[in-house]
Amino acid sequence: MESATLTEEWKRVLWKSQPYPDNYVPPEVFLASLQRNAHFRPYTYWPLVFLACTITQHVSVILVFLGTFVRLNEHLLDPRTLIWACIASFLVCYAMWILLDRGKRHPNVQKSGDSNSKNHLKTLKSSIMVFLTLVSLSPVLRTLTAATSSDSIWALSAVLFLLNTLLADYTATNNAQHGEIHSRLTSVLSMNAAISASVVLASRLSTDISVFALILFAVLSFVLYPIMKPRLQGLSTGLWLFITAALCGFAVYLLAPLSTTVTAICAVVLFSITFVAPMLLVWAQKYKNNIRGPWDVAVPKVR
Amino acid sequence: MERLNIAMVSDFFHPAVGGVENHIYSLSANLIKRGHKVIVITHSHPKGRAGIRWLLPSLKVYYIPFVPIASSATLPNFLTSLPYLRTILLREHIHIVHAHASLSSIGHEAVMHSHLMGVRSVFTDHSLFGFDDAASILTNKLQVGNLRNVDAVICVSHTGRENTVLRGQMFDPDPDDPTKLKMRNNVYVIPNSLVADRFKPSSPPPSEILTIVVISRLAYRKGIDLLVATAPRICARFPNVNFVVGGDGPKLIDLLQMREKHRLQDRIELLGAVKPNDVCSVLSRGSIFMNTSLTESFGIAMLEAACAGLYVVSTRVGGVPEILPPDMISFAEPDEDDVLRAISEAVELVSAGKHDPFVAHERVRTFYHWDHVAQRTEKVYEAVMKSPQMDLVERMRRTMGLGRFAGPIWTIILVVECIFFLFLEWWIPRDDLDYVQCDTWDDARFREIAKDAERTCYKSVRDPQGQGEERGSSVSL
């Protein structure tokens, strides 16, 4: 059947019997609603670098932690210094948190300072509780894996830290600006992996106090810092870049005396995460081919 | 046209219930009515449904002993079904294998193997798939390889065809201009259909109450979230509107919670799973049918509702806009407010008496008929039988064209399949096969025997002494 001889226009309906064969392909209408790369915004390099800083920071925090552990293990660092440093940084961060909170809450809610101070008291109480629990647990943790060989511990902690890096929540959400933190399952898993890794590492240390110092440091860097991070990111670009650079520098500084090879590898890793990986992503975009059409599962809009 | 022997192959068939199952059965029954011989090949079901069974209009069903892994689909393994398929296709003298549904691995295997026995292949795709999730990507890759050498593809809607063409990459280089791609001309659109007599409207008792019917699997893909969000708002806006919801699924909990929270127990009735036979009686309780699917290839439920005289409100997704003329259905975007608007308009339209169920029924009756579907499918078979069969070299050349990695893999599968087939030819020679001798179904003879059997049954109930003898005679039937 020739379409030129047909007078009736082809319609995209099934209920009407049309004088066209069933395998007729309407030239204009066919696949007219196909969208390629709809709503596609190409990435640009520098914003990506800025976003990649989150990952760089995360990796540097792990490296700083490992550097600290090695120092503690080889008695190059006094655990008391570490404990004091932890307490000091906790207080500084807490003060910052309150300041940020107050700055945000000021315009809309005029809540009484009463509940605020109650909150502080609560925080203080629970932090002392955590502190004491860790103190009392540290002898147990020190001998926890005494029967396990060190090689297994290194492997285990490496796997756990890898898991932590893979599952961590790197999104710079605006949710955190509203004061509530939506932690997803993966970020909880990631935190647990990091804490488990620190516990197995801590069990290699020789004294109770160094175990305690390391676990305290782990709690600060793997539990409290990730909560703080999105806030800092939202605060100012300059500060964020400065923190990233400082953490990277500190990680390299801690590792440098221990081993040149490791330092070099870590420096390369940090550099490539920050600068090379975004470049790869920008380059790979030209292969993007996203097809959308009426067959896609619609997203229901429900209030 | 001449009489054809057709084998429908799919994982989805009676005793399982669903759209594809119903489609295969109805199409087969109507092809038989048109004088063809049709058999169905599917996997076995628990409680001993394996082997050969007959369904009513002389439809022979082969239940091959494969165990389904999930949702009635068998494990895709390319080769294990070949011994069964070879024997069945040869002994039944099959000309055309017609596979159904893209998630049915037996169907795909039949399409793959059919050329070995010199049998032609047709594939019907019933569903829509996206392109961006892992499951879709995997099935699409399988589909590209399997449909590379199929003789014809049938889709149930125009949207479905666009989707299938993209998923199966059914385009070849244009012979005039090799840089361009041209769609294959063996992709057809033949809609689903329904038996209009089973969905007759009933005149509702005169009452102020207007009932909205929802019959759907209660799953995310069916947009139950939209129903949960809009139902309380509709109930609040129209005090004379009630809901009847039929179906079961993971989202039932959400519906129950919504009903509890808004205290709508007397306004929203939840029926649970509805048997296919009861669908019409549920539909006849209402005057508006609401469908909130997020994706739908054809939407047979809406057609059934329209046929039963209900006014249909649906989300504008997939192939739904194609199935009914605009004055029998109204559309909403998948958005809570827009669904509310569409339902409100429908309620006003129906309350004003502007929708006549009997006129709607008569119109749907003229739109869809299984006989038309069978005729159109017959035309596809005819075109396939006329087209030249590809030889093995051509097949391998086309398979290699699948891609740098996929091409060699699929070619290896093709070669292994051929070797396996040669082994089977040696192991179970064709001369040893038990060929079906009598291909014609004598309807008069069947009726005679059926009547006879009925009489003996009746007698055996009346006369318990003669039971043993009667049982013997009924077995010999």
What does this molecule look like?
By secondary structure, chain A is mainly alpha-helical. Chain A has one domain (45-286). Chain A has eight helices and two strands. Chain A has helices at 45-73, 79-105, 113-142, 150-167, 185-202, 208-235, 237-255, 260-284; strands at residues 35-36, 291-292. Chain B folds into three domains: 5-193 and 371-432, Rossmann fold (3-Layer(aba) Sandwich); 196-367, 3-Layer(aba) Sandwich (Rossmann fold), CATH 3.40.50.2000; 443-476. Chain B has helices at residues 19-33, 82-91, 105-113, 134-146, 158-167, 224-237, 252-261, 279-283, 300-307, 320-323, 336-351, 357-367, 370-386, 392-400, 406-427, 443-462, 467-476, and strands spanning 5-9, 37-43, 51-55, 59-64, 68-70, 73-74, 96-100, 120-125, 152-155, 171-173, 181-183, 187-189, 210-215, 241-246, 268-272, 288-291, 311-315, 329-332. Chain B has an eight-stranded mixed beta sheet with strand order 3-4-2-1-7-8-9-12, with helices on both faces. In chain B, helix 1 packs across helix 13 (370-386) and helix 6 runs parallel beside helix 7 (252-261). The two termini of chain B are 33 Å apart. Chain A binds chain B through residues 12-17, 21-23, 25, 30-31, 33-34, 290-291, 293-303, and chain B through 128-132, 154, 157-160, 162-163, 165-166, 183, 185-191, 221, 223, 225-226, 228-229, 292, 294-295, 297-298, 315, 317-319, 321-325, 333-337, 367-368, 372, 376, 379-380. Chain B: Residues 47-133 form the PIGA GPI anchor biosynthesis domain. Chain B: Its EC number is 2.4.1.198. Chain B: One of its GO terms (biological process) is GPI anchor biosynthetic process.
